[in-house]
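Whether sequence alone determines local backbone shape is best considered at the level of individual chains. For completeness, the protein is quoted in full, as a sequence line and a line of structure tokens:
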Amino acid sequence: MIPPAEPDASPWPAGLRIRAAILGYIILLLITWLTASDVLAAVCQVVLISVVLLPGLEARRPSAWLGWIALVVAVGMLTRAGQAHLVLDLVPIAVNLGLALLFAHSLRTPHTPMIARAIIAIEGVERLRLPGIAVYARRLTLAWTLIFCAQGVLFIAVQFWLLPTLPMESSARAWAVGWQHVGGYLLPILFMICEYAFRRWHFRKLPHASAQQFFRQLVRNWPQLLHDAASNRERNG
């Protein structure tokens, strides 16, 4: 079972801080598109890096802080070379392929599938022990792996094959770039909503949390998805 999280000393809950940082990133991203500023593009990247590494940074893990410093220095060097916008365009590719690798890795023995970790974090380990839940969690983890992988490959094709053929001021290019940075997040959200509805029907004999409670718990407890209970038991056993 996942151990309880350490008390949060900040007056802002972790989930609220993460949502505020993501909102700030989106606002900065929109301003960057409007101003074409390399400095703002670099700031966007630093904000995104900080959001991704926030659990490790708050826990004062040396690896997280060293990674943050290295990435921020790299962003600064690329900005100095005038390549900040290129790195920003590569963010959707890195996010999707990174998530695909993370989900795929969790499917390997002795690791706990990512969706199983979500169930433990949101509803408790007892929920995972109910008939059919563990198998469903593994299959859903595989489905998410395929979605992230497919979208990452699609973004690679858009970035390196489609965009170079489109004029800089064309509406088609604007739509393609917009899909990479904004629209690409709509497919996972749509899949999550459809899967939630299917799960409630498929396991209709089991009690379910309301949609509002489910997503609130997901936002609040998402850092626990990085906790691999099965792998820890293997190392400690």
